[in-house]
Amino acid sequence: MKTKFIINASKLLLVTLATGLFAGCAATRPISDVALGAGGAYLGHELSNGDPLITATGAAGGVIVSEGLHYAAKKQTEKA
Fold it and tell me: Under a CB-based contact definition with an 8 Å cutoff, are residues 13 and 50 in contact?
């Protein structure tokens, strides 16, 4: 049951991120940072059985992924 919930939450976060990136609006940056940070924290918490250090690392990893995606999208638009 826990694995199915994690998979569904991951899919929801991916769809939310993809929608924000396709919109291309600068206002989506904080939203995607929060969404991926929260998703990373949740996954870290679930996979580590509540270890606070892993939970915080998951949140930081989610924000880093979000920033990396925004950076890549910006570079792609500058190249075009």
Answer: no
